[in-house]
Design a protein that fits this description.
With about 200 residues, the protein is an all-alpha fold. The chain has seven helices and no strands.
């Protein structure tokens, strides 16, 4: 394989084949197949893709060259969009737009991650504020409940004192009734003695 064949640009047919393959294997297209368990699978997929691309019209390249081409292609498209203030409509071809939509639109670049972080921080602050308000309301409700319990205890004490006074009053009435009964018995006895001793 000559340097010329590696350096020449891929045909449109080859580029379409790459994008279609990546669409079927999004983890490969996004570069997410990392780690020991994914490395072999990634290598097999790239080997399979290389055979497909090299069988089409256009330059024949080794697998490493196609891997680099895909990484460079995504980097170029990302740079174009960033240089146009994040507007993907400035991309020149439908293939580039498709690559952007499938693999780059949701990419966590520095700008996007900072926006997401700010949004996350704002949400976190709001949640903390809501929690503080809820705790304040709970403390207020506990204070009101405590005051109500105190008033209930006072009412119970007043009621107990009233019952005690009522019981004392009944005791006094009972004692007075007993005294009146004794007095009437004494009067009755006296009358009987008087009438009993009087001459007929």
């Amino acid at each position: 394989m000559t340097d010329r064949s590696i350096a020449s640009r891929p045909s449109l047919e080859q580029v379409i084949a790459i994008v279609d393959f990546m669409e079927k294997h999004p983890a490969l297209g996004l570069g997410q197949m990392r780690g020991l368990e994914k490395r072999d699978e990634c290598k097999k997929l790239w080997f399979k893709l290389t055979k497909i691309i090299n069988s089409l019209g256009g330059p024949n390249r080794p697998m490493k060259s196609w891997v680099k081409y895909w990484a460079d292609k995504k980097s170029t498209i990302r740079s174009k969009v960033q240089s146009s203030n994040g507007d993907p409509n400035t991309l020149s071809s439908n293939i580039e737009k498709k690559i952007w939509d499938l693999f780059l639109a949701n990419d966590s670049s520095k700008d996007r991650s900072s926006v997401k972080q700010e949004s996350h921080n704002s949400t976190h602050v709001k949640i903390m504020g809501d929690q503080a308000n809820a705790l304040s309301q709970l403390a207020h409700a506990s204070h009101v409940n405590s005051q109500a319990m105190e008033r209930l205890a006072e009412a119970s004490q007043i009621q107990a004192r009233a019952v005690e006074r009522l019981a004392t009053s009944f005791e006094s009435i009972g004692a007075s009734t007993h005294d009146v009964r004794n007095a009437m018995v004494d009067i009755d006895c006296t009358l009987k003695r008087l009438y009993g001793s009087a001459p007929a």
